Model the fold of this input.
Amino acid sequence: MKEHKYFFVLFLILAASSFFWAEEVVESIVAIVNDDIITLSQYKNQHDALYQMMRAQFQGEEFQEQYRRVRKELLDTMITELLLLQEAKKRGINVDEQLKLAIENIKEENNLNSDEELWRVMRQQGIDPEAWKQQMRESIMKQGVIVTEVDRSIVLDDSEIVNYYKLHPDEFTEPAEFSLRAIYISSAEKTSSEVEDLKQEIESKITAGEDFANLAGTYSEGPAMENQGDLGTFKKGELEKNLEQAVEKLKVGETTSWIMSKDGWYLLKLEDKKEERLKSFDEARQEIDKKLFNEKRRKRLEDFIKELKEKSYIKILNSNPLGFD
Done:
């Protein structure tokens, strides 16, 4: 079993979970949510788990930007999570079977043969199995509320799907693709005369009927020499602009004239081409379904959370528990 793989699987199961053993924190109440409270230690545990998870995913400025955003939203996220858990308990949602299945899936994905082996690996990673199971149970309960109140309320009308397809053809248009082979001559350490002589020599051999691939393997410099100049396939927009403009004018089997680049010259041959193509409605339907469902889900979830907050007693006693600037 790969320890690192298992570590990240556990990390991503419950975003911002508090199953890590934490240092002691002087206790105080951060927020009151109906009959429950959010304590400073709970807030710090959530913050620290999030920090570690984001450190593993992002680097540099991207980390700083993502961390600042999540940190700013953390207390509101915790309040929302607590409201969902309260709603799940109120409804008596039982998730014993889902929890058991989730544990079995984790064991299977990580080649573990028993619960005991799973708990042992968790402890090696500094994770309290009982706290983790409780967090997993609560996470599934909260998802159960969302499925019931949000997902099952969403209906997609066929006319919506058809209209979206008609109004957004650009989203379902596959760009043209070019399969190219190249001969590349570097202008570095060559005089202009030497470059011109080499270009003319290659052109004369092509005119005489010599194989372009063989010539690429003989004359090309740099990466283009590998695989006899086979550059692979490029979608429209992926090539340098001057190269793409030259290639677009070709028919399959034709070659460009010499094209100057920053450090040399290219001679390109169009090996194959797939024309730009609009996907059929049947091909695009599943993609549209998913997009429209997610848009409605996001809006309905926002409304549902707003409704929960409006009918709840929420009092924030410390909006910046860890004293960040």
Notes: The radius of gyration is 30 Å. The longest helix spans residues 60-91. The CA atoms of residues 147 and 160 lie 22 Å apart.
